[in-house]
Specification:
Blueprint: E1 5-9, H1 17-31, E2 36-40, H2 51-61, E3 66-72, H3 80-88, H4 91-94, E4 99-105, H5 113-125, E5 129-130, E6 135-137, H6 140-144, H7 153-168
Parallel strand pairs: 1-2, 1-3, 3-4, 4-5, 4-6
Length: about 170
């Protein structure tokens, strides 16, 4: 596969469950001999265009063809920092006609379903093609329970099915 895969950990919180789930997706891709990169928003200055942001956009966002968004639930939607990343970018050069896979996580029951729909609307506006199998992961704190990866068989199976579909997408 010649597609360049990027996983975006959609929060700027340190040591977040979002980052753990992003690493789990990267591990699952590695098991399939697919290389990927994780973009974490931790410590990133998204208040304005900076030389560091411009370099990241050019070297990481623009060349990526398939993007996995791991989006935690913040107030019934996505984190502001994730929306700011999208807003700050040169969306025509960065996002047009890319393919995206969406994963929502929450400590509640919905797995950020509303946030995934909100993110889908934003990405569709930016001409990103969103895979229809969006995975809401509920009670993520219980599924991780201090571990670096989710080991719940049903959730792991759902992740693998979602990824297998995305690889063919």
């Amino acid at each position: 596969m010649n597609d360049r895969y990027l996983i975006i950990s959609g929060t700027n919180r340190r040591d977040s469950n979002t980052r753990k789930v992003a690493h789990q997706y990267q591990h699952c891709l590695t098991e399939r001999n697919i290389s990927s990169e994780i973009l974490t928003l931790e410590g990133m200055d998204l208040s304005k265009h900076t030389p560091e942001y411009d370099a990241m956009e050019k070297e990481t966002l623009m060349p990526s063809k398939k993007i996995i968004f791991v989006a935690p639930e913040y107030n019934g939607s996505i984190p502001g920092v994730l929306k700011t990343l999208l807003d700050l970018s040169d969306y025509k050069k960065t996002w047009h006609w890319k393919k995206a896979l969406l994963v929502g996580i929450s400590t509640g029951r919905s797995g950020n379903v509303r946030g995934l729909e909100h993110l889908t609307t934003i990405l569709n506006y930016m001409k990103v093609i969103v895979h229809p199998n969006k995975l809401p992961i509920s009670s993520v704190h219980k599924l991780l329970d201090g571990r670096p990866e989710i080991d719940d068989p049903d959730t792991v199976r759902a992740i693998n099915i979602q990824l297998d579909e995305f690889l063919k997408f």
